[in-house]
Design brief:
It is a single chain. Helix 8 packs parallel to helix 11. The protein is built from eleven helices and eleven strands. It has 390 residues and is of the alpha+beta class.
């Protein structure tokens, strides 16, 4: 192969290969940077907390001075579910019995309070299945608390009474005893805080637990939903606000604006990735043009090599190795530049939003590897096909 390479490399154009290399590098870097930037910046706008996705809106009825029911009727649920902006819809299921909770350390209760539980279908809760589950007979119920509750305790209740402030990690280790009363029955269970959420101002438990406990302690109570969790196709759709206004429903405007920002971020990232892919495709054609010109200039040499017994696969191998090596170098250099750029902008993000978690880079690595494999295979097949025609 060394002799074949010495024979065929004479007409290689360094400027053409350099053009392919730079164009491919630019396209690869734009695609990977757009994906990684979207993954890094999205938590800033969507307020991701690992339990409730930012594409969900919480819908409730306005409370009027005249009172009245705040529960949603089946007809209202059906009408909202048929709207063009609705992707999926479910109601909150509330506990219909009395709940008391005491918290302490090493079995000694420090304080207690009356409370309530709510649940949504498990598909709306982004939690690990080994943490978020309940079956009849279990002694522990998993609980997700609002972060606002912890803030109220730390900066209100605890500060005014000279009590120690609690972090999320400490709360997860505190012993919790849940007492449920209703229908002439009483039961005690352990509670375990598995996480905190910014999206909901409620105490969330698994749906299977609510169904079992309501059946056990309030079998005749009305469990019609008073709040809904709504997944929308496009948070920027003006029809959402119009519909809610016309029907007297309330939604959290801050969450809606966050959803709109996340949607625009997704669109912009998609457009940038599309531009990067277009540049990558153009670089592919630049390389193919260079290879075709090489083959055209070396037509006589290639024909002589075929006549003395060289196969098309053996003749095309030097060109194929050249393109694969250049693609590999492009991938490695693009990943190195990506890590450097990410370190630069993440310092600014963490300076403004210290609580933003570091996101993994493996999706960008996987995408880069996929692009490398696809482009290399296309190069190999195109070169083999061109030389076979000589």
């Amino acid at each position: 192969m060394r002799l074949v390479w010495k024979l065929l490399r004479q007409h290689i154009s360094a400027p053409q290969l350099a053009g392919f290399f730079l164009a491919n590098l630019l396209g690869m870097l734009i695609v990977l940077l757009a994906l990684q930037f979207y993954k890094d910046v999205r938590p800033v706008f969507s307020q991701e907390d690992g339990f409730i996705n930012s594409d969900y809106l919480i819908v409730s009825k306005r409370v009027s001075m005249m009172g009245g029911t705040s529960a949603f009727t089946p007809r209202e649920l059906d009408d909202l579910g048929r709207q063009s902006f609705t992707k999926s819809l479910a109601g909150f299921t509330a506990s219909q019995y009395k709940v008391a909770c005491s918290m302490g350390i090493e079995g000694v209760a420090n304080f207690g309070t009356q409370m309530y539980f709510e649940s949504v279908p498990d598909r709306f809760v982004d939690a690990a299945k080994d943490q978020w589950h309940f079956r009849k007979g279990d002694e522990v119920v998993p609980i997700v608390l609002p972060r606002s509750y912890l803030a109220i305790y730390n900066f209100g209740f605890a500060q005014s009474r000279s009590l120690p402030k609690l972090s999320e990690g400490v709360v997860s280790m505190i012993d919790m005893m849940v007492v449920m009363r209703g229908a002439g029955k009483e039961a005690r269970m352990k509670g375990r805080v598995v996480g905190f959420t910014n999206r909901l101002n409620t105490i969330l438990v698994p749906e299977d637990f609510i169904r079992w406990s309501n059946q056990e302690f309030a079998p005749d109570a009305d469990a019609s939903p008073t709040r809904l969790i709504l997944e929308v196709n496009n948070p920027t759709d003006d029809a959402i606000a119009r519909y809610m206004q016309q029907h007297g429903y309330d939604i959290d405007e801050d969450k809606l604006q966050a959803g709109k920002t996340t949607y625009f971020l997704k669109v912009v990232s998609g457009v940038i990735m599309g531009v990067g892919l277009l540049i990558t495709v153009l670089s592919f054609f630049i390389l193919m043009l260079s290879i075709y010109l090489l083959v055209q200039k070396n037509t006589l040499k290639l024909q002589n090599l075929r006549l003395i017994g060289y196969s098309p696969a053996r003749i095309s191998l030097p060109y194929q190795l050249l393109t694969v090596a250049m693609n590999a170098l492009v991938l490695l250099l693009a990943l190195a530049i990506l890590r450097w750029l990410r370190g630069y902008y993440m310092e600014m993000i963490w300076a403004m939003f210290p609580t933003v978690k570091d996101t993994p880079m493996w999706p960008a690595y996987v995408l880069g590897l996929v692009l490398f494999v696809v482009v290399s295979l296309l190069n190999i097949l195109a070169i083999r096909r061109k030389i076979s025609r000589v």
